[in-house]
Design a protein that fits this description.
Length: 86
Amino acid sequence: MSHAIVARAAQFQAAWYFSLLLFAILLVVFLGAGYALAGIRRLWRSGEHGPAAVLAGAVTVSLLTFIGMYATAIAGLFAIQGGRGL
C-alpha cells in the first residue's frame, strides 16, 4: 500500500471523527437552548414576563455566541484542509 493511499485513508478517518464531534456539539447546544426556552415559556405563561424576557435574551445571546464559535471552528478546519473539505 502506498503512502498516498494511507494518508488519504487517515484524512477520511479524521474527517469522520471531526464531523461526528461537530454534530454532537451542535446537538448539545440546540438541545440545551430548546430546554431553556421551554422553561422560559412556562415562566412567561405563569405571568413572570420580566424575568422570562431577561432569560430569553440571555439564552438567545448564548446560542448565537455558540453558533458563532461553531462556525469559526468549521472555517478553521476548512482552512487547515486547504479548502478540500473536512
